[in-house]
Amino acid sequence: MFRFGKPDSGECGAVNDSDEGAGRAGQSKRKDARRNNETLLDAAAAVFVTSGVEAPVRDIAAKAGVGLGTIYRHFPTRADLVIAVYRHQIEACAEAGPALLAAGPTPHAALGQWIGLFVDFLVTKHGLAAALQADSAGFEALHAYFLDRLLPVCTELLGAAAASGEIDSGLDAYQLMRGVGNLCIGADADPRYDARRLVELLVAGLRQPR
Amino acid sequence: MFRFGKPDSGECGAVNDSDEGAGRAGQSKRKDARRNNETLLDAAAAVFVTSGVEAPVRDIAAKAGVGLGTIYRHFPTRADLVIAVYRHQIEACAEAGPALLAAGPTPHAALGQWIGLFVDFLVTKHGLAAALQADSAGFEALHAYFLDRLLPVCTELLGAAAASGEIDSGLDAYQLMRGVGNLCIGADADPRYDARRLVELLVAGLRQPR
DNA sequence: GAGCAAACGGAACACCGTTCCGTTTGACGA
DNA sequence: TCGTCAAACGGAACGGTGTTCCGTTTGCTC
Q: Please, which positions of strand D sit below 7 A from a protein CB?
């Protein structure tokens, strides 16, 4: 949330606030490098919207009017590019957790709302949920980033709900997030499948039966 | 369930009972063709156990000591090979449905048990659940086969449970199966994730709150 | 303006599923 | 027994990935 408030292509953030944080090139000395970084983020965001996160790297390079070498220098792996594109929204999701907990009527309600936010984010990004799979080739970094950022938040919400006695405390946040993520796979591209509904059912199943 | 009761490699069925049913080559006039069909099924089953269903076709051809052309003549696509390898177990799962319903204490219990069977099957086959994804490239036939065979069974169980009033009847069998399948993705290869547990939660969430 | 590290572009590589086609082989009738 | 020929075979080749590599260009800095 620094600068670079470009209108940007289509739907999502895709801006590069270059606040570093994950160890990438960040701010370069050279103007063309900085410009290309931004261009790539915008191009990637646009391509992700139309072709999904699994879109060929060449498509993104072409959209950005840039060579393949350039894209790989800025983002050593596709996962790094995805992370950079969606960082803002993931950040917002993480920050919403404590806010919901403070504002919500009960911890379980806050948990449900937060998970709803998470699901909304996942299902609107074509193929993102599938890419989150820990073992999906080349996306380990994406998996790790989501966990690093969102797992503590989910743990807090889950802990609060368990402490209030609303919830069967036997499930850890990792499994819950993994399950929710899995349920979102393929939610786009299949009108017969409503991931939100199934996630609701899962969260409902979390309640203490007594 | 005809003949060819070979011991077969390692774990699962992998036998070719050549009862047709899906329109494949079935029984050839030539001995070598029949032998290769069986050899391929065994080799594929063995490779699937060690490398998962996404194993390269070349690996299977090598294991079988056969050319690439041969494998593609017997099984036009990788999905057809997977279907052939697991057909017996899918069949058994389908047949277990009505049996459980007849024997079980309540329809909801039968549904739970049947889904347990389904989950056990999925999580023991590396990557099968992920391949079931409708849009996973090249596996549409696999998706369709599972649906054709198991959806009616699930519909029956779900309908019975809804009729008995144990269950919120708002969810159709397709969504339930899709959700369960999704929850099983990556269940192997991640000891921190217990798909069975989450599926139980999902099924529990299905119960009427009142 | 000269020099040089940094950034660039895209050919090349390794791997994938799949197709294609020249070669081999097994069944069957003479 | 042997000739015939459709059927089956093997694997090179194709189109498509992600990623690496390196010769060339470019923007800073002095």
A: 7-13, 16-22, 26-29
